[in-house]
Amino acid sequence: MPIAFHLDLHPDQLTSWVKNCTQAVVTVDDQGVVKMVSPQFLKLLQCPLDQVVEQPLDRHLHLPPEEMERLRHPDAHGGLRWVQGELLPFGSSPKTVTLQLISGKSSDGWLHLLLIYSRDQGAHHLQRHAEQIVNSLPQGIVLLDSTLRVTEINPAACWMFGVNRDDLCGQEMKRLFLRLEGGEGVDELEDRIRRREPFRDIPASWILEGVPQVVTVDYEIASESGGESFLTINDITRNHLLDLKVRQTDRLAMIGQMAAGTAHEIRNPLTSIRGFLQVIRHTLDERGDLKGQGYAEIMLREIDRINHLLGEFLLMGKPRNVKKRRVELDHSLRELLPIIENEAILHNIEVRYLPGLKDIPPVWADPELLKQVVLNLCKNGIEAMGEGGLLQLRLSGDEERLILEVEDHGPGIPDSEINLIFDPFYTTKENGTGLGLAVSKQIIEDIGGEIQVSSGEAGSIFSVILPCVRD
Length: 471
Hints:
It contains 12 helices and 20 strands. The protein is α+β, with helices and mostly antiparallel strands. Helix 8 packs antiparallel against helix 9, helix 10 (329-345) packs parallel to helix 11 (367-385) and helix 11 runs antiparallel to helix 12.
């Protein structure tokens, strides 16, 4: 039965598999040129390697004309099929052989695997090698009978759907999707399969045990198979996450362009306005106009808030000159503690620092930018608690990385919002800009670290993960 798939094995993996295969194997590109062979194939040909590799296949193996045409135009005929051919050993008469021909895409284009069997090899031997290849594929493959019951599923598909092969084989297709949560596009897949409507590259996503899965699915009906069909599932989760990261980076770049073009133009008139307001406030103070003086104070505070927002704009957009060096994080934290405690005292909050490690390894970072992140996280924690509470700073880690945790006992972050808090301009604070956490995340990533958050009803924990200095 034909199976269309992509040969996404790493080139070194494929080369190693062919080299160590006990079967006669040859790989050919879509020009009909031999790319790799197994030792067993050379043994059958009685030829040295340099007379076979990078040579036309038809010098050593004749295939029917229509099969050679399929090698050169694989888009319409990709998959797995059985063909008859004629092997041309050096110094011997031709031998009729049976070939299992597998066509698929590699990273460099189309590639064909030809597994060669002499007439004395049994069918079970052919099937064993076919199963070995299908089970090693990174794509998920699910075979269905004419009643849409699962007849076979490979390990990759079991992992993507969170199922066990023995529990699923013989069951209805709908059992394949039972464990999936929050699925998008799954209902469409099921509907089109039930209508036995072939399709390619249909996107779908779901959550399996808390882990997101993003895939594209192909569905084909096998020719001359009595109604059997099969699914091919390609895992594109990693590409999807990279795409999201690129989009976020593009958004930050756009903010940077906006900041560079507008911040200075806005700040210049604001400076003049603030100067005149200070003069007016002083005049009102001399006249004893307390009400007018109060209005002037409000306007000055609002101008200062606008200046603060512009400063964060510039910080987001300005190319950062990261100067990484060896930093003793314990020493840096102890320098910052008085600043953090002064802020906390105003809100009746206790600050507690727990080094946690006997020997704290140095980290590789920009000390000034790192201090900025720590102060920002501590300020957020203090503001989240409001009045009263405990702010804890903890260190943990190993020789590879050091983890700084900043924990508050505030109300926590709702599950619906926890994935949004690092987005620019997203804030739940009445006077917040929504740029503090976005800036912090960008700084830590520029340093080469990572920032994570976990939250519940008892508060939130922000974890800053930094690479340690290696001797």
